[in-house]
Amino acid sequence: MDTSVAINDLKHAFENRSFFQLGDREVLGLLHSAYYTEISYLTSAYFAGCPAATSPRTRSPSEVLYGTKYPEVDRTLTGLLALRWIEKNAYHYFTQNQSSSTRLRYESFKELREYFHAHTRRFMNHDIVFTLVTMQVTNDLGKSAQLKIDLEGHLPRGVPVSSNHDMMMLQILELDQSAKLIPSFSHLRPDLRNAAYESIHLSAGFNPGQLVQGECAPAALTILTKLDLSERDLHLKFMELFLDVAGARGHVNHEGSLTMTEACYQDYCLVRDVSLKVASGAMSPWEAYKAVLRSKTKALQQSGWRVPKGFDLARDAAAIAKTRIFCMARVIDAETADLINCVYENLTVRIREALEEGLCRYGTVDRPAVQPTYMPAMFANLKSHAHPAHAFAALLTYLAQVLTLTRDDLAQLEPGTVIVERDVREILENCMRSDMFLRDPHAVVNASTSLPALQVLQKTH
Questions:
Q1: Report field, pTM of the whole predicted structure over 0.85
Q2: Any idea where the domains of the chain sit in the sequence?
C-alpha cells in the first residue's frame, strides 16, 4: 500500500499543529493511514506478561482502528497520545489513573515537557517530531510474527531471523529492506533517517530500559562509545524511550499513563543522564551501572527499607545481586524488598553463589555475561501469587540456572563474545500461567527441562 499521501498529510498536521488540536479518533486515523504497514505488523506482535482486566471509559486505540484489542498496538499508540498530552500540558489527564502515593509530580511533568520543548524546538521542528513519531511507531516491530515471516523471505538461505526483537530490526536495516518492509523510514530526512537507524543499532546492543530493570550487563553500555550518535540523536532516542514508557501499559488503560510514575520518571532520567556521560567519555560503563544500582537502593531506603548489615554495593557481591533483582522485580516498597531479601538468604549456598557470579559479571571475552531477557515480565507475574515467597524462590532458582554458562556453552560462542542473551519468555510464560504453578511454584524449575537458547548480543569486534 502506497502511504505517501497519508504521510504528507501527517507531516502537514505537524506543521499546522492540528496533530495536537484534533480529537484522539481523528489523530489515530491520521497515524493509521500514514503508518498502515507498520501498525498492521503490530497486530501480530507477541506480548510478554499477563494482561490485566480494566474498564476504561473509551475504546482503546486498537479497538477504534480494528474493532478488537491488540496489546502492542495499544501500547505503541498510547505512547503517541502521550506526546499530545505532554504538548498540551495535560498533567491531570496524564496522571489521572495513577495511585496518589506514586503519582508523577507536577514539577516532574513540567520538567518532562520542557525536555521535549528543548529538543523539538517547542514542537515546531516538524522533521524532528515526524522522526520521533516514526521511531515510536517502529520501536517494537521486531515482535511481529508477520514481519518475521516477511523478513525470512529476504534473508539468505540458512540465515535465521534473530529471536531478539531489537536485533531483528537490525537485520532489516543491514539488508537494506527498510523501504519495503518499513516504508515510513524512506520518508525521513536523510540525517534524521541515520539517527533512527543508529537508534536501532543502539537498542540491538544496549536497550536503556533493560538498564532500569537490571536486565543488561554493564558491558552493554560500551556500545554508547562506539556508535556515530550525536547528542541530538541521543536525545531523540531518549524522547522515544519516554514515550514508550508512558504507553507501556496502554493495553490496560489508554486514558493517561499508568507507568510514568514519579519513581519511574526519575529512573529513566538517571539512565538518560548516565548514558550521555558514557557516550561523552565522562563516565565509565561500570560507574554508570553502579549509579543506577545506588539510586535503586536509595529509593528503597526512602520508602522505609532498612538496609541489611554488610550491604555494600562497592564491595559486596550479594548486594549487587540483590539490587539487580530488586530492579528486575520493579520493587518500590520496603515490604517487597524485605521479602526478596529473606527469600534470597534462605536459598542454598550453591544457588546464591550462582546468582552472585552471574549478576556481578561485567561482560568480557574471558567471562561473558548473560542477559536474562524478559525476566522482569516474569517477576511481574508473581505479585498476585498466593505464596509469593515460594514463587520468588522458584524464579530465583531458575534465574541462577539461566545465568550459568557451562564449558559446553562457552565452547559454542563466537570469538569475541562478551554478552549473550537467554530469552526466558517462551519457556516460562505458559508455565507461570498454569494451575500447576499456582499450586507448586517450584514447578517452574522442574517443568523446564531445557534452558533458553544462547544468542550473542555483543562482541568485541
A1: yes
A2: 4-206+227-260, 303-459
